Amino acid sequence: MAKVFLPKGTRDLMPATMNRRLMVIDTVREVFARYGFEPLETPAFERIETLTGKYGDEGDKLIFKILKRGAGGERGEVDQALRYDLTVPLARVMAMNPGIPLPFKRSQIQPVWRADRPQKGRYREFYQCDVDTIGASSPIADAECIAVVHDALMALGLTEFRIRINHRQLLAALAKAIGAESEEASMLGALDKLDKVGRIGVEKELIERGFSVDQVSKLWAYIDGATIPGATEAEAELRVIMQLALDMGVDPDRMKLDRTLARGLDYYTGPVFETVLDGEYSGSISGGGRYDGLISMFSGKDDVPAVGVSLGIERIFMLMEEMGLMPDTATSTQVWATVFSEQTRSATLEAAATLRAAGIRVAVSTRVGKLGKQFKEASSRGVPFVLVCGPDEAAAGMVVLKNLATGEQLKGEAAQLASELGG
Amino acid sequence: MAKVFLPKGTRDLMPATMNRRLMVIDTVREVFARYGFEPLETPAFERIETLTGKYGDEGDKLIFKILKRGAGGERGEVDQALRYDLTVPLARVMAMNPGIPLPFKRSQIQPVWRADRPQKGRYREFYQCDVDTIGASSPIADAECIAVVHDALMALGLTEFRIRINHRQLLAALAKAIGAESEEASMLGALDKLDKVGRIGVEKELIERGFSVDQVSKLWAYIDGATIPGATEAEAELRVIMQLALDMGVDPDRMKLDRTLARGLDYYTGPVFETVLDGEYSGSISGGGRYDGLISMFSGKDDVPAVGVSLGIERIFMLMEEMGLMPDTATSTQVWATVFSEQTRSATLEAAATLRAAGIRVAVSTRVGKLGKQFKEASSRGVPFVLVCGPDEAAAGMVVLKNLATGEQLKGEAAQLASELGG
Lengths: 423, 423
Description:
2 copies of one chain form a homodimer.
Chain A: H1 15-34, E1 38-39, E2 45-47, H2 48-51, H3 56-61, E3 65-67, H4 71-74, E4 78-82, H5 87-96, E5 104-113, E6 125-134, H6 139-156, E7 161-167, H7 168-177, H8 184-191, H9 194-208, H10 213-223, H11 232-247, E8 255-257, E9 271-277, E10 284-290, E11 306-311, H12 313-322, E12 335-337, H13 345-357, E13 362-364, H14 371-381, E14 385-388, H15 391-396, E15 399-403, E16 409-412, H16 414-420
Parallel strand pairs in A: 1-5, 7-8, 12-13, 12-14
Antiparallel strand pairs in A: 2-4, 3-4, 5-6, 6-11, 7-9, 9-10, 10-11, 14-15, 15-16
Helix pairs in contact in A: 1-6, 6-11, 8-9, 13-16
């Protein structure tokens, strides 16, 4: 028996899964490209000093460290570590390429590695999918974050979503307005749980965190629409961004200003976005915002304007499977070319070549004869059509194409049949 | 100044490079899929015991090792290592999935990592690109290795190539025929240098290795076409494979039986293939063969028939650049939408949305006004068209599209112009 295993928390992406993932990635990549975001790839590992201290103490523990080659490694020394996200590598790229034309709009779809405790649907290797605009403070860059998420989800058929939008400065004004300027982080920590625990739960938490009943009732009044002193500028900025997103074609019903949205407040400096699905499939599938302080972490320069958004691509793969939005075939092969006998094999291969030249995906059976068995092989793999070329067909320069689901048969020259198949 | 560096031997793949690489990978992947090879991805790292001892002592030293998390890691213990090739992971997948339907035809295009001394064009992270058919001894599987390489190179425009074909058993018979049965490896070691050192160089090397002048002259006679005793079966097999490849559409001028081809003899057991470019760009760009003993390394079962071929994708990227086969644009963005003023911005964004919906890639300027500067920005990035929407155009529901190379201008509704651009 096999005495070989996968590393903990990892998986093989078998062909049926990979075909679907590639379809999703191609769709997303095309949407990104239509907005001028161009692909970047960075190495799987970075120098250890590039990564340490960037993700907090908890994050640091989850970084996979690579042993030095040679004598240092034998002493347990480490010089490199696997990529933990796509943002620190982007900041490194910007620092190392000071002459790069700005704005630099890049998309990046690559795996990252985190030594988290593995659990259902959570792996130690997973893909991240980010777009960012570096070097532009224009609200167009913020609006594009909304528009690419909108267009990507629409293109994937995940149409029941809502993009929630808020502003870091609006939240700061909100904390100030309830007299909790120095407890902003605490207020946001409680608010962040609104989706999970509801208003009553948040109230309980705020009281436990030392907020007064009066502060809590003021908070709800502001959240429900009362004018927040000092938030005018932030709200005006959000209105501009949302108008630009509308101009870009975003459906107004799929985006909303939400004063409770509090995500990732540690480094966001302006607008923040989060996308949730409506209905039974709750939870975030995308998030981002403006983070004008982060990109200069290595360059030591002043703040560099930056805004970006991340699609939760692993979650999207999973949800699309659950919601039946993925093609239900295990294979991308369209035709299984059976081999009737060694005498007809050449004719079969020539027909297969004709279909392929028309763009059709044809696997040729590696068995000879016993067509019933070859048909079963095709059908158990989920290949929709079989091609048959017996002695009569071979003599006439024809083949038979059979739809395994309907039993329907077409007979003709391979070139004709290719166009029937949409090739 | 930036105090941050890339790890030794690695590089960032910037957008201009990535656009070209993705184009090549998409082309290759599509050719693979047309033959029924479906994509597989395996994790970046494997358990250390899966990899050690598989690549020889020299190879073992080049494996990047990952420190254990927790206390073990603090003592310098290692439990995982980065993928070194795509074949050992495939053998692991086969061992862990004994129920997988055979033949299993997979393609895999992923990076591998080797701590080699970096040199020009050689990196410590590089992509491999393999197709393999596991579980079929049919010569169709061998012929498909030839056909996919042929079709992929043709599709990429690398048309001046020759696929050399030989057979492990023919080489064994050749060694026996010159009385060097137990010196086969030594004979092949010398023959392998034929391309580099020519016949005189190989002769010299053979003599140094202890072969007699008589053995050397016999060797040339066999290589030049004399019948090799005991090679009949291998030659018949190669003739079948080459006929099948012809049936699949392979150009006969681009494949040839070559009795001197000796590649990677350590694990190949049957036919072997190698592709070289003709003319000034010499050297191998693809290689493979049948290796019936390798896949069972983890399963402990009997030999599993296996044949595969690897495209030297990094070398192909490099050669295509050198040969001018890559698109000469630095960007895949087709239109740079300038913003005349804040008043016309909405109209500009709507036009951009119309172009995008027609499949055109449009980046919107994040600047406002000073169109000359915006034009320069587009042209310095290599974007071929600029879109202009001034107050008159906005009022008329029109835009102007200018070809920056020719100066030609088109004015019309965005939807019309989209079809002019081929959207």
